[in-house]
Amino acid sequence: MLNAVDAVNRYTASGSNPTFAYTFRIVDQDDLLVYLDTTLQTLTTDYTVSGVGDSGGGSITFGTNPAANVRVTILRNQPKEQTSNYTLEAFPSERIEQDLDKLAMMVQEHEEKLDRALKYTPNSIYTDQGFPDPDSGKYLRSTASGQEWVDLTAVSPTLDLVSGDVKDVADYADFETAVAAIGGTTSTLVIGTVQAVSNNVTVPSTLTLWFVGSGQLSVASTKTVTINGPVITDIRQIFAGSGTIAGLGKMPVLYPDYWGTNTTPGTTDMATAIDAALDVVEANGKGTLTTLPTTYAYATSPNFARAGVNIVANRETIFKHTGSGNAFTIDGGLTGGGFLSLRFENITVHGNSNSTHGFYVRAIHHSVFNYLTSWGASTTGAAFQVEGCYVNQWNSPKSSGNGNPYPSTPLYGFHITRRGAGSDSSTTQTIINPILEKFTTTNGSGIRIDYAGGNTIIGGTSELNYDGVQITANSYGLNLVQSIDLEDNAGNDLRIAGVSNTFIDIYGISASLIESTANRNVFMGGWLTNLVIEATAHSNTFNTVLFITSRTDNSTAGNFYHSCTDNTLAYFMNHNPGIVIATASLPAAGTAMNGTILIEDAGAGDRNLIIYAGGERFRIDGGTNF
Question: What is the DSSP track for 394-460?
Fold first, then answer.
């Protein structure tokens, strides 16, 4: 007879006990498999057996006590054979019973193995489900057509971080106890509920935290959880409480959503969550903050200027400023060295009438700004306010109220200036392909440069503004503006009061003004329409420029024109060195012509050099032709 029992016993060793019972019958001492954790033990070498043949089982005794917390597993392993030989003899009842018991033992062993197997529920319609042969390094996935082995990183890169034994925080008193118990063993800790953390905890690099369900770490005030290992999670809030989360160096990117739930996008204030993510990046000295394709609102802008930060937003993300101050602050401070080597990309900011500026960038250097869009700020502010910055690259900054009117129209589109009175100027800003439109307030402009020098603007457009490009008298020169489209500006396409700037291939079809303080500027190629040069502007050079409609040079000190074309006259009447002019059309002598050299066409074979100096003009005979 054989009782209905499980053919397995499992224990957790205490570290002080060598003997463990087995509660099922065996025929031979070899009919056991004994494991410590996953390691198979050897009979007589590691343990001995008693109770062979007893219906209630017996025990095994280890030569060395198993260590505390080691799992001891004892399995029956009945040989799958039939060695009895039945002949013409008296009925061998004991032998038949033993053979039948062996068969029952095999059945019990199979039952134990099936208990450990994955099985469909009794009401399942699936039968005869086969599995493909194992494929090293891949994971099994069920599909509509069956099972397949897949590279898990292709399905979810974060799930590939699962490593070692998978443990559940629910099996421990709390999160702190779990981390301490696991120690440095390579493991994955599943967190499925909110875990209150009331002490400082350091998670080792060997421990992966896997947040599932409603799993969170709620850290008490003044306490810090430092996470040095990988983290697996959906993009949702996993950190709560007023304490600090540190580390996270093994997370490829950080989302503000890890620190806060954006319950009502555009209304829920996410400033605290954004700041928490930035704090981690700053503490690490590097890292990337990214976003979901939604709206993140805040009343007060966090300061996004943090050491080593890269902010690469989703292209559909909007940062919405609902309060006062700057709509998006990147501030390296009024004093000090500021920040170096930052990156901001795909950031769209919506300001309001109380937003001092859209993007406010101060003391940021050697950094890259890609595809930033600013929409709306106060009527005295700028869409992009750049103060005291040097050696930055701006790719395709945009602010346009064309077709989508600003909620409040800023005074300037892109304003490059110094940080504080008498402080650092902005230099070597390279702005490529800006789109700056609808800054229509009187004396406002798409681009304004003051207290700044050595900046470069290439391509793009500044149109439908009051002024297109304005460089003031207090700018520091050496600015380059090239190949920009300036049209339909109500005031001037170009309004230049500074010195020693260069303009190449400007396309201006409204009007341009060279103010009285402008000198030593160079204009090369392009179109300038309705150009007016004020009286004391001087030493400005125009080279191969096409003047449209009119050109009025009121300068008494002289400017220089080389190979230019006036679209409204057959020739220039003022300051055109080297141009050929008929005798009857030669300009009269006067101080306004001083320094000009013309070629007189007095008829066939008669060409002379006309020099204007000292309020007079002089003819040098050109001699005979050859």
Answer: EES-EEE-SSS--SS--SEEEEEE-SSTTSPPEEEEEEES-EEE---STT-EEEEE-SEES-EEESS
